[in-house]
Amino acid sequence: MDIAALNSTKSLRKDVLRGMCLCFGFLSVGFAGFNLTVNNFPLLGYIEICFSIYCIFTYISLIRRPLQFWQSLIMCVLITLIVILGTSLASPRNGVFVWSFALPILYYLLLGKQYGVIFSANLLVIQVFILGSKSTLAPFETFNLSLNLLCAYLSIWAISHVFEGSRSHFSKRLKNLALLDPLTGAGNRLSMNHYFEVELQDKSQLYLFLLDLDFFKQINDEHGHGVGDQVLIEVATLLRVVLGRGYVFRVGGEEFALFSSFANEEAALNTAEQIRARFENTTFDIDGLAINVTTSIGVAKFKSTNSLESFVNQADKQLYKAKQFGRNKVYCKFKKEHDYETVVA
């Protein structure tokens, strides 16, 4: 699965913003010429020219770089200011206010629910105030027309709000289905890839613990897979508690990977030993059965040359040693002036 597909919301907003930039970039040039030559609104015309230049600049930027939230925010602010300024300068008969009906849709698509509510509410209040202060109320002289326009705006706002809420909810559910192990609730391999490649920015003090439950097959053979599954759930919970800060991923049947940052190697090893000792001293109560399980741990420190695959292989070699030389041990190999092994048993 493509990792980028997990950021569906960001991809959607980038596509929407690019389309808006292309559309409004050309429209603004036409409106600017009309306002400078026919309507005699030079201020609005020059602002629209500047807006058109900004739209083209943003469009080109989005081709080369990822979307930043501030780009969507600035776009919505600029469009809102242009519509408000146009409404205040022009007569209501010119219909500039009609653009207000499209803005809630753009707010929700580009900014989400929270900002969508704020922008839509402020736009409504400001536009009602501007139109209400005009010397002539035409074409709002009839109450029915004013009421219908208000209801139309509120309906578009409500539909945009409900749609974005539903889209956001289902996007999160799909992301959870893709990223979480359905049994334990820990991250899966795809989640680990996504975390390492996309979310994790600073890897300078990153450590990887690769854990394998010792003789776990015996639990399944003696008590059944149902009990084994409950043990795995308890194990994932225990790992999250003991690790404190960091991320837990289930990468195999009884194998887990833990990512966390530590100030130094000693702190990382102390945490790994705490995890090992906690398992050794914990008895899981599963349907009235007292289940004891130990774990072997391989520890690796991130190097600037590491890919995720090489990082995992580095930890896997230490895990293999922990299992080969007796299990219920922590093995690691850090490189300073010389290579050396640290074994915690």
UniProtKB/TrEMBL annotation:
Record's InterPro entries?
Answer: Diguanylate_Cyclase (IPR050469), GGDEF_dom (IPR000160), MASE6 (IPR048435), Nucleotide_cyclase (IPR029787), Rev_trsase/Diguanyl_cyclase (IPR043128)
Which reaction does this chain catalyze? 2 GTP = 3',3'-c-di-GMP + 2 diphosphate
Q: Which PROSITE patterns match?
A: GGDEF (PS50887)
Q: Which chain regions cross the lipid bilayer?
A: 16-37, 43-62, 69-90, 96-111
**This protein's record includes keyword Transmembrane:** yes
Keywords noted in UniProt: Membrane, Transmembrane, Transmembrane helix
- A Pfam family of the record is GGDEF
The protein in question is named diguanylate cyclase
Q: Which lineage is the organism of this entry classified under, starting from the top rank?
A: Bacteria, Pseudomonadati, Pseudomonadota, Gammaproteobacteria, Alteromonadales
